[in-house]
């Protein structure tokens, strides 16, 4: 397996994991009584909060609803499609190398 294939695989796994974590974070907003500082929720909090906190400063909650996790799901999905989708940069590069 070439280094570019490994990079594409690792990047795909990372972006899929981040999408899943942001979706879990969206679900957790439906349950405000959940303590994000307790395990296993603390893992989700620690991995997503570095992205959400700066975004939350730019985009305030609308009507008390925090939409920043939704924005990040969209951004991560866009990056994944741009790099690894059917016409993605890494996908096309890997096809031309074969």
From TrEMBL:
Keywords, alphabetical: Membrane, Transmembrane, Transmembrane helix
Family statement: Belongs to the YggT family.
Name this polypeptide is given: Integral membrane protein
Organism for this UniProt entry: Prochlorothrix hollandica PCC 9006 = CALU 1027
InterPro entries on file: CCB3/YggT
Gene Ontology CC annotations of this record: membrane
Ranges annotated as spanning the membrane: 6-28
